[in-house]
Structures are given as structure tokens and as C-alpha cells.
Amino acid sequence: MAGRLHHNELLIEAGLVRDLVDRAFPEYASLPLSRLPSSGSSNALFRLGNELLVRLPRQPGGSATIEKEARWLPRVGPLLPVSVPEIVAIGEPDLGYPERWSVVHWLDGDIPPVAEPSSHTDPMRERLALDLAGVVTALRHIDVPASALVDPELGWYRGAPLATQDVRTRRCVEACRAIADLDLDLDAALLVWERAMALPGIEQTATPRWYHGDLMAENLLVGDGRLTAVLDFGGLAVGDPTVDLVVAWEVLDPASREVFRHTVGAGEREWLRGRAWALSLALGTFPYYWVTMPDRCASRLAVVRSVLADAAAT
Description:
The chain is α+β, with helices and mostly antiparallel strands. It has two domains: about 15-105, Phosphorylase Kinase, domain 1; about 125-310, Alpha-Beta Complex (Aminoglycoside 3'-phosphotransferase, Chain: A, domain 2). It contains ten helices and nine strands. It has a five-stranded antiparallel β-sheet, with helices on both faces. A hairpin with a 3-residue loop joins strand 2 (about 45-50) and strand 3. Helix 5 runs antiparallel to helix 6 (about 185-195).
């Protein structure tokens, strides 16, 4: 099976998707269907005509994120300053495919380039920093209804206190040591993590706020130097929103990173927790995706290097 990423990957071929669409939504039967060259790790993506995108969970249980997006994104999305995927329809399990799947409107744009630690100051990235800060701030200010606080689908480990990631992150460092061609100073990375574990408040539970949970370059679209859309709200959750700061170490240079920090209003402790989240999530990428998703790993390498450069400069 092409594009296999997980040991329990569901078989999702173009022929199956064609049949699913035609049976569930015959009004789309005449639209051409093609698999995108680069799909996400959670969903297989197929363009349907010029205006639609079909998203199918790659693993068993993926219906939960499809249902969560269908329920909450229409309430959260309109309150954000950029476009988000608009759900057109939800498909049911059929033809041996066991999960629910979605059809959303196609959004035009380009994925923003990753910023290396040596990136020069770029006014375009400063504009991007302001736009990203606008999204993060807007999410944090959306009211959290009582029903969201008790919805198990809106609880995720990325909204938990940073201290809960200590064991996992240390294991990831050790797993990374087994990757022969990983050009990374893992001892320096571990030292940055250990310093983060000494920060005050890493075991405390923050006031629950909305957060995206996977605010990375691959889930962003830009056009004419502006952020135009945020994609994939499968990680949308309620908890500590610090994890959404991780994007600063992937797509922003040092100067624009400070613009982002100032605009979001992140204090020193929160900023360092965000940096630690960026380090932890990036390190967790390499053991799992080193062979199957080289582009993602390249982006995460830039994240770790930016974190290490940032830590060395402070």
C-alpha cells in the first residue's frame, strides 16, 4: 500500500474513495478525484473537483476527530481571523472502510517555508508572526462552554501540564540516538529539556482554553505574505494553550519570533514552556516518521535546531 505510515494503517486506495463518494454523494460522481501528493499522518487526502477535498482517517478510531470537527469547528472557526476548513458533508462507513470521513471546501494557499536558525530577519515573517498571534489570541479568548469542559473528545495530552511529558521526551531522546543519520546534538537537547523541567509551574493545571494542538507549518496556508488559513482541527481541544506557541520555532526567525511573543503576551515562564513543547514534539517525530515522512522530519529538525540556538543565546 502506497504511503503506509502506521502499523494499523487502513487500506485507502483511490478506487475505494471514488466508490465511497459516488455512493454517499452521487451529486459529486462526475467530479474528478485525485490523491494529493502529500497527505497528512492522520488523514488521507483526495482532491475532488476544483472546490472540494475528501479526508479519510488512516487508522481505526479516526472517526472521533472527524466527528469532533463537525461538531465544534462551525462554532470555533467563524471566530478566528483566518479561513478554516468548511465541512460540506460527512460520509459514513461503507464498502469495508470502517470510519466516518469528511468532504470539506478546498482552500488555496501555500505552506509557509520553515525558518532555519541562521535565517535572516524577514519582514514577511514578521507579518506572519502577527497573523499567527492573531489566531492564537483569538482561540484563547473564545468562551469555553460547560459542555466542552466535560467532553472527553476535547481532552488531549497536549493541553496537560508540561511535566506530564518528561518520561516520554526522555525516551524519545534515547530512541533518537539509534537513528544513525540524525545530525542533531541530542545531549544539548536533553539539557534544554532538563532545564525546562526545573521551571516553576510545570506541574500546574492552567485555566482551560481552546487550542489548536498542531499549529505547525504543514497545517498553515499563506498567500501574498499573509496567513490565509489554518487546517486540520482534529487536535482541537480545551486545556493549557501553551502548546500552540510551538509554531514560533518552525516558521519564524528570531526577530519575528519576538514579535509573535510580544503580540501573544507570553511571559517568560509560558514562553519557555512553549519552547519545551516544541522540542518535545519535534523529538517525538524522528523515531516514528524518519523513513516514512522525510519532509516532516526535515521541518522538525529545523525546529530542534532553532530551539537549541534560542537556548544558547539566552
